[in-house]
Amino acid sequence: MYVRNYKLNNSYIVIVNYNYVHECKKVCDQIRKDRKEAGTIAKPSAKAASKKVAKNKTPKTPINTPVFHKKYGNGKVIGFDECQRACIEFAESTIKFILPDAFEQGHLVRI
């Protein structure tokens, strides 16, 4: 039996039995294989696929839109990065926010 001790945060010792881990992995792989052969693995629904497409769209907030943030004050949208996060320029720094979530959660307010 292959066992290894790990010390976490200088207070806990975790003992890992790798034989047990490998046995669990084999069982899980066999279950996945059986389900795949039986055709019972769920495929993403059309609704889930449409949500993925909606997330990839460019947010509808135009560049140079003035915004207000409680901590950073007044700012404006200066662009979007490759992940469609809005780059907002404030007096002290430039911060990235996920839009429209930042507006919905109250982090940003259009002014």
Describe the fold and architecture.
- The chain is about 30% helix and about 35% strand.
- By secondary structure, the chain is an alpha+beta fold.
- The chain folds into two domains: about 5-40; about 60-110, Beta Barrel (Thrombin, subunit H), CATH 2.40.10.
- A hairpin with a 3-residue loop joins strand 1 and strand 2.
- The longest helix is centred in the N-terminal third of the chain and has 21 residues, at about 20-40.
- It is elongated.
- The protein starts with a strand and ends with a strand.
- The mean pLDDT is about 75.
Outline the biggest β-sheet. Answer: 5 strands, antiparallel
In terms of per-residue confidence, which ranges show pLDDT below 50 for 5 or more consecutive residues? Answer: none
Strand content: 25-35%
Q: How many extended strands?
A: 7
Query: What is the helix fraction of residues, given as a range?
Result: 25-40%
- Placed side by side, the strands forming the largest sheet appear as 6-5-4-3-7
- Derived structural class: alpha+beta
Radius of gyration: 24 Å
**Principal-axes shape call:** elongated
Total domains: 2
Architecture (CATH level 2) name of the largest domain: Beta Barrel
pLDDT averaged over residues: 77
List the helices and strands in order: EEHHEEEEHE
Note the topology.
Blueprint lengths: L2 E6 L3 E6 H21 L7 H11 L9 E4 L3 E8 L4 E6 L3 E5 L2 H4 L3 E3 L1
Antiparallel strand pairs: 1-2, 3-4, 3-7, 4-5, 5-6
